[in-house]
Amino acid sequence: MNDKITFAGTDLLLVIDVQNDFCPGGNLAVPHGDEVVAHINRIAGRFAHVVLTQDWHPAGHQSFASSHPGKRPFDTAELDYGIQILWPDHCVQGTSGADFHSALQVPRAELVLRKGFRAAIDSYSAFYENDRKTPTGLAGYLRERGIGRLFLAGLAFDFCVRFSAEDAVRLGFAVLVIEDACRGIDVEGSMAATRRSLSGLGVQCLTGDVIA
Question: pTM of the predicted model, to two decimals?
């Protein structure tokens, strides 16, 4: 996609989980995760509306491998809502790992949506927890604000960005992913699977140069 984007007042930039624990040196570092910061800072000023999401887990969260004796990070477990990848402890409430990256500069953000705060269920998506039915409330917020089109950026492309994009489409929003403002983990082919899923849903993946 090479043409410049024409913006409307109903567009919104949704910045997913640009937090210390997902950046180099963090407990669940996405390779080169900090590289998204400059991209996001560069494009954020083009949007009249911006929302940030923040992973916000209590200590001992059920998605942590440390909560399951004998399990290691990236093992899986059968939880009440299905199969869950178990992660290193990350983005624990009130810790520096849960803080946004210090270089992230999005002063016009209108909302910080915290997710994953229920101890028994993880939340990749900005819209639903991992049971795919418990809402975060974001969809209602966006609809009441008259938002129709979402541009997604952040971490990680193949988990929280992917699930947020899929749910946004399911909820009737137009969705575009700014892929050079994302980085992924790639667990067992999850990057390729994400691209297939987004393509199948008609989600456009573009680069920030068509925005900035």
Answer: 0.95
Exactly one of 21, 23, 89, 160 is catalytic; name it.
Answer: 160
**Which tens digits make up the pLDDT trace of 144-197?**
999 999 999 999 999 999 999 999 999 999 999 999 999 999 988 999 999 999
73 vs 187 pLDDT, higher one? 73
Dihedral sign computed on CA atoms, order 111, 63, 96, 15: negative
How far CA 108 is from CA of 53, 126, 186, in Å, comes to 14, 19, 31
Catalytic annotation present for 17: yes
Residue in 11, 17, 34, 89 annotated catalytic: 17
CA distance 122 to 104: 25
Catalytic member of 115, 122, 158, 205: 115
Strand, helix or coil for residue 193: helix
| Pairing outcome for strands 82-85 and 174-183 | unpaired
Residue 186 annotated as catalytic: no
d(CA 160, CA 166): 10
115 catalytic residue (yes or no): yes
- Residue 121: which residues within 8 A CB-CB, separation 6 or more? 62, 79, 80, 81, 129, 130, 131, 134
